[in-house]
């Protein structure tokens, strides 16, 4: 089954939205297979956002991601990469639909609460960047037959 990397950014942690955010993914029917609270190093932040390193917002983004604890997660399920991006909503919370995490809780692009991998290749890369193999748990919830045919 497909896996994605999601991270609740320092603003989501500071605003006490960890439970709310996890709850949305959990009740959708996705399975949490990796979870930890991380004080992100500059090296990890720069690697994670490597694709944006030439962009003007890159230094501020790295400062922000390293400014406080981040909740790093791996979620599993059919189509979880694209579906999690929908649940998260558009990058700028002012453009994100109500009902999405960013649409319901955010007002600014630089404080958009959560990261989600945007494609299978980035999901694979980000999962291995943030987690060791032994930190991921292979399990299936007993409700699986009630989620999938
Ligand atoms: P993310 O990678 O954090 O999940 O966000 P995303 O895919 O929706 O957006 P992306 O284009 O990958 O941008 C990464 C993060 O950079 C910040 N950003 N700031 N000031 C700006 O114009 C600007 N543009 C992007 C955002 O925090 C965005 O989440
Ligand atoms: Mg992105």
Textual characterization of the structure:
- The two termini are 14 Å apart.
- The chain has helices at residues 10-14, 18-28, 42-48, 58-65, 80-88, 101-105, 120-130, 144-147, and strands spanning 3-8, 31-39, 69-76, 114-116.
- The protein contains 8 helices and 4 strands.
- The model has no long low-confidence stretch (mean pLDDT 98).
- By secondary structure, it is α+β, with helices and mostly antiparallel strands.
- The chain has a 4-stranded antiparallel β-sheet with strand order 2-3-1-4.
- The structure holds ribavirin triphosphate and magnesium ion.
- Residues 52, 57, 61, 91, 109-110, 112, 115-116, 118 line the site of ribavirin triphosphate.
């Amino acid at each position: 089954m497909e896996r994605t990397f999601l991270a609740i950014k320092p603003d989501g942690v500071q605003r006490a939205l960890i439970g709310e955010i996890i709850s949305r993914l959990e009740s959708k029917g996705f399975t949490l297979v990796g979870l930890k609270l991380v004080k992100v190093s500059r090296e990890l932040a720069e690697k994670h956002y490597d694709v944006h390193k030439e962009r003007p917002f890159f230094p501020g983004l790295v400062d922000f991601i390293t400014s406080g604890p981040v909740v790093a997660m791996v979620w599993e399920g059919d189509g979880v990469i694209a579906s999690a991006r929908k649940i998260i909503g558009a990058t700028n919370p002012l453009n994100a639909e109500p009902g999405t995490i960013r649409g319901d809780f955010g007002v600014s692009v630089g404080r958009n609460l959560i990261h989600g991998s945007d494609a299978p290749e980035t999901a694979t890369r980000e999962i291995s960047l943030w987690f060791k193999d032994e930190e991921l748990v292979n399990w299936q919830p007993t409700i699986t037959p009630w989620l999938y045919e």
